[in-house]
């Protein structure tokens, strides 16, 4: 799966990009028909819930699966968004397996 990573309002360091790439590679084994993925890492102004936002969109035939998570670190945001995507992937598989 081709993964595009975009950092908004900050410069992502190599360590963060490698972390995201590794997590997305693990997610790739859950969904075979994915054609691509976009990961948007955004620094937000809201500090209460955490100002680090991760939005992940996976392109699959017939649908786009999207998850957004916010926390105090980008790593935690990416982990939470991937957890949400895993649930969506399971629902997607059940829906199209019939």
From TrEMBL:
Keywords carried by this UniProt record: Ribonucleoprotein, Ribosomal protein
Keyword S-adenosyl-L-methionine found: no
InterPro entries membership: RHF-like, RHF/RaiA
Pfam families reported in the protein's UniProt record: Ribosomal_S30AE (PF02482)
Any single GO CC term annotated in Swiss-Prot or TrEMBL for this entry: ribosome
Keyword Ribonucleoprotein: yes
Domain of life according to the entry: Bacteria
NCBIfam families from the UniProt entry: yfiA (TIGR00741)
Name recorded for this polypeptide: 30S ribosomal protein S30
């Amino acid at each position: 799966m081709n993964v595009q990573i975009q950092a908004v309002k900050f410069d992502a360091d190599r360590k963060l990009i490698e972390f995201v790439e590794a997590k997305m590679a693990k997610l790739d084994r859950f969904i075979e028909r994915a054609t691509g993925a976009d990961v948007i890492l955004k620094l937000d102004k809201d500090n209460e819930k955490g100002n680090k936002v991760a939005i992940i969109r996976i392109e699959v035939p017939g649908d786009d699966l999207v998850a957004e998570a916010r926390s105090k670190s980008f790593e935690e945001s990416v982990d939470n968004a991937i957890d949400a995507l895993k649930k969506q992937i399971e629902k997607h598989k059940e829906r199209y397996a019939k």
